[in-house]
Amino acid sequence: MSKSPLVLPKGFRFAGVAAGIKASGKPDVSLIVSDQRAVAVGVYTTNQVVAAPVVLSRTRTPSSTVRAVITNSGNANACTGEQGMSDAKAMCEQVAERIGCDESDVLVMSTGVIGQALPMAKVSAGIDQASAKLAAGETAFLAAADAITTTDKGRKMETREITLDGETIRIAAMAKGAGMIAPNMATMLSVICTDATIDPDEAQGMLTRTANVSFNRVSVDGHTSTNDTLLLLANGNGTPLSGESICLFERELTELAIHLAKQLVIDGEGASRVMQLHVFGAEDDDAAEKIAKTVAASPLVKTAIAGCDPNWGRIVSAAGYAGEAIDPEKMSLKIAGEAIYRNGTPLPFDAAAIGDRMKSNREVEIELGVGEGNGKVTYWSSDLTTDYVQFNTKYTT
Amino acid sequence: MSKSPLVLPKGFRFAGVAAGIKASGKPDVSLIVSDQRAVAVGVYTTNQVVAAPVVLSRTRTPSSTVRAVITNSGNANACTGEQGMSDAKAMCEQVAERIGCDESDVLVMSTGVIGQALPMAKVSAGIDQASAKLAAGETAFLAAADAITTTDKGRKMETREITLDGETIRIAAMAKGAGMIAPNMATMLSVICTDATIDPDEAQGMLTRTANVSFNRVSVDGHTSTNDTLLLLANGNGTPLSGESICLFERELTELAIHLAKQLVIDGEGASRVMQLHVFGAEDDDAAEKIAKTVAASPLVKTAIAGCDPNWGRIVSAAGYAGEAIDPEKMSLKIAGEAIYRNGTPLPFDAAAIGDRMKSNREVEIELGVGEGNGKVTYWSSDLTTDYVQFNTKYTT
């Protein structure tokens, strides 16, 4: 093995198995178990149409006693009425029985097609199989990470090790994309496990702040899913982190989440390029975010990025209809480092040279000034390609 | 000729010529002249980044003395700074000189690529040529309608004749699409000419109401242009319409505008199908409109329509993130007349049969209930195809 093994947090076991929920036969049941009761906090979809597993899990966080997260892919258990709620609960009950804990200490996530009842016989067999396979270590972790994916081209994960107060702490996270990705939330599903000791209230605040500058600032297609769930499990049983240590931990968590969120965009359905969009000079950060979201969602901007065309009129005009105050006379724009527009007036530029620079890099940097305010944001979005359209014309999500 | 000639309003002359602004050599300068001073009112883009011709024209309406509308296609004269303002003014001055009127009685519209200075030598030669060619009648009207188009597959026009108070009144309208189409406005450019006599205040109110239920309810790509302009010119010099007559006229105008707006969608860039989306049960009409706009803009919904896939989870979930209150337990959905979802629960349906019904009709009917309120709206949107993406990846707008 040329790669060094992953550093995984202590006291967690993982499993991922194929239970036949997906027609493809790929892994579709994922189980994460903490040997000790863990602090668990969540951030969930803002969609008003909410899948049963989200309805259930969000009543169970924040918590200090969570033992497991059970996830199925291939079926979202969304828009499934009362049957959906009872199926989500049954999944938790079965896990609780297998690992020996209270049913309410199990969280549940689902992702896949909307509006079909879960094939519970398959799900149940999968839970049994996963419970039997639970293990610490890299192979099990990777299997669990694979089993939460759907249309993703590859697994998404990120691990860290840091030393705080002389103690080594580990963080390991997994996530899945790859369509219905939009703020807020933009994560679809993600679980972050750590063996740090964190107070539940601290953990909730930290996860919300982290989501706001990571998963809530990426977009693939602007469509907020019914199932989005971001969970943080912390199973340490020492003295809770505080002071400078908690700040350092949060910084690490935020960096990890941004890396993971960017993976969602890079692997977005049909994506060929990522735009990293900096909006500045807005009235405040919220205004900057709304402008960035509007620019990032414009099909005309997204196709221009796909074509490596510095078609700046589309970017500037998108900012103008975001519904936030801008100052057209003070607007400025750089694409791939090149100044193109300043104080509301075009500058001479070499379109072919900028196009070549865009082509040479998978990440296209866009810096858009909209006025003289202090509001700013960084935002990531995929481009829009014929692959995205072809894929979603055929695929029933 | 098998087609009957168009019925055009009296006292208007038209011209359309090719001035070389478009590299393709297609017609790109369009002139409409009213022999008498006309009442003129406008509805303009809500984008904060506003093209010079919009800035100029909107200071000149409402008016009772407008004589001409000069339009160029192939260049939007947007984001062009002070040069752009002086070029827009120069266009009006030249027309005024040619037809003999005050410069401020000329309105101007531009459409095409953003951020490049107008090639004024060509524009000026085109205005001279168009002035010399001005004529009443069908040939001239069609030439003028052709010369305002850009990426449109064909010209968009609509004419009507009605009798009010024993007098025959004619209305003739032209419009251009086909991308950067979104509320508000969604028209890009449209001029409606009539020989009716209408009070300017009545005309302005009527045009605003008309825009709200027609051009402001269609979407191709959700990107609001910098140049959108809808003008109504009424050059009658009798007694202004009033009472029942004005109501009948407004009804006719509204129907005409809805027909024209639907043409924009049918001919939207890359469009293969149109969805006609009825949203009902919202808190009020504004809420219904925002929900419809969100559903219509979702790339996942638009690709499902392109694929004739009754992928209803995408529709229901899009309604859930529109930011307006909905009642998930009371939601209902019909696609192509078939009930698919009721009271938040899926109904059994034959997906293949509905898919076939979608395929057999260019217009797909979607009826979405979001609660028990009285708010409702009808909205039209094109689908999202690989043709749209290919086209806009290559085309610099």
From TrEMBL, chains A, B:
It catalyses: N(2)-acetyl-L-ornithine + L-glutamate = N-acetyl-L-glutamate + L-ornithine; L-glutamate + acetyl-CoA = N-acetyl-L-glutamate + CoA + H(+). The active site is at 187 (nucleophile). Belongs to the ArgJ family. Heterotetramer of two alpha and two beta chains. It is an enzyme of class 2 (transferase). Keywords: Acyltransferase, Amino-acid biosynthesis, Arginine biosynthesis, Autocatalytic cleavage, Cytoplasm, Multifunctional enzyme, Transferase. One of its GO terms (molecular function) is L-glutamate N-acetyltransferase activity, acting on acetyl-L-ornithine as donor. Catalyzes two activities which are involved in the cyclic version of arginine biosynthesis: the synthesis of N-acetylglutamate from glutamate and acetyl-CoA as the acetyl donor, and of ornithine by transacetylation between N(2)-acetylornithine and glutamate. It comes from the Bacteria. The keyword Chaperone does not apply. This is Arginine biosynthesis bifunctional protein ArgJ. It comes from Novipirellula aureliae. One of its GO terms (biological process) is ornithine biosynthetic process. The keyword Cytoplasm applies. The record marks 111-112 as: Involved in the stabilization of negative charge on the oxyanion by the formation of the oxyanion hole. GO terms for cellular component: cytoplasm. Its EC number is 2.3.1.35, 2.3.1.1. Substrate binds at residues 150, 176, 187, 269, 392, 397. It is found in: Cytoplasm. InterPro entries: Arg_biosynth_ArgJ, ArgJ-like_dom_sf, ArgJ_beta_C. Pathway: Amino-acid biosynthesis; L-arginine biosynthesis; L-ornithine and N-acetyl-L-glutamate from L-glutamate and N(2)-acetyl-L-ornithine (cyclic): step 1/1; Amino-acid biosynthesis; L-arginine biosynthesis; N(2)-acetyl-L-ornithine from L-glutamate: step 1/4. The record marks 186-187 as: Cleavage. HAMAP family: ArgJ (MF_01106).
